[in-house]
Specification:
The chain has about 130 residues and is an alpha/beta fold. About 40% of the residues lie in helices and about 15% in strands. The protein is globular.
Length: about 130
């Protein structure tokens, strides 16, 4: 398992609070973050659908994460690479950024999703939203 190209540098420079909200089990999420050396960016801000028993594309996981961290859905941004996650973000009423590198096997056809193809594009996109 390898991190997405450029993600370390982008996470290092983003001042925004960050969390992981995944359909996977907590232990798998933590192991993956540790393997890719991304764990220090998220600390204990890891949310699993297994804990709340609601999976993407339902909005509950993102709404739970935002509420737990003290943010409203209108002040939350979802960055996703899965169609179910993108739809969950839209269903939650959040801004959704879709990471869709050229190698992705599918097209995103979800109204309201902002697509980007490289992690290096994130800071500029986020600056345009703020």
């Amino acid at each position: 398992m390898q991190p997405i190209e450029g993600v370390h540098e982008v996470l290092d420079q983003l001042p925004h609070p960050k969390c992981v909200a995944s359909n996977g089990p907590i232990d798998v999420i933590q192991a993956n973050l540790k393997t890719t050396a991304l764990d220090h960016h998220f600390g204990n801000r890891i949310f699993s659908a297994y804990v709340i028993q609601k999976w993407k594309p339902q909005p509950d996981l993102f709404l739970h994460a935002a509420a737990t961290l003290g943010y409203s859905k209108t002040n939350s941004i979802v960055i996703e690479d899965s169609l179910a996650g993108m739809q969950a973000g839209i269903n939650a009423g959040m801004i959704v950024l879709a990471y869709v590198p050229p190698s992705h096997p599918y097209k995103v056809n979800i109204k309201g999703v902002i697509e980007f193809t490289a992690m290096e594009q994130l800071p500029e996109i986020l600056d345009g939203i703020s």
